[in-house]
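hiii, so i know i said id send this last week but things got crazy w the move. better late than never?? heres the sequnce for the chain we talked about at the cafe, plus the structure i predicted for it. fair warning i was half asleep when i ran it
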Amino acid sequence: MLNTKTFNWGVPVAVFVVSFAAFLIYALKRYVIYGNMELETHLLFLCNKALAMSAVSLISSIIILNAYNRIVPESLYLRHHIRKHFGIITSTTVVLHIFISILLFSPANFPKLFNTSGGLHYYGAITLIFGVIAFLMVTAIDHFEGRGLENTLIFQLGGYLGLIFLMLHLAVMSYKGWFAPVEWPGNMIPLSLIAFSMLFIVLIVDLVSRILKRK
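okay and structure toks below
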């Protein structure tokens, strides 16, 4: 018989480990093998990219599981209450990503966000603002999850806004590179575009599940 505690922690941890490993390999191949980054000086930077993608994978998993649970109320996901454990792992991953990003935040690591004089560019500031808003909204949603507010309009609106601000955080920071495939190292899609696409897809999945539930 499946141990409930093991299942609750095992699923989100597995999602984190698999996504982190997969995206780290992808980042190494794109930026080191095909790009011009030195592994010795950019290992933490690349690990942070994989960490960010792991956070997106966890958020996407939560939304998909919620959508499935909405359509199939008696699902295994509902019975084992793994929503809380997914939230803990996701929040921890996001906080760690933010902490490392602060350590690495400089024109050398994020040249797109700074102007030629070394100051923060206006869309660099917008990127940070969108990221902070997304973090606060996702954290608030996670905090109030399971308190009977899931079906309230403000809770649902907060979830959508958090997701949209996260997508805007990615888009403002990287959109120029998305439309220049000739500049993609090894013809490999930018991680930010992959993350944006994942979030867009799960947003549609969530909306469809809500429509189906009402029928």
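btw The mean pLDDT is 86. thought thatd interest u
miss u guys!!
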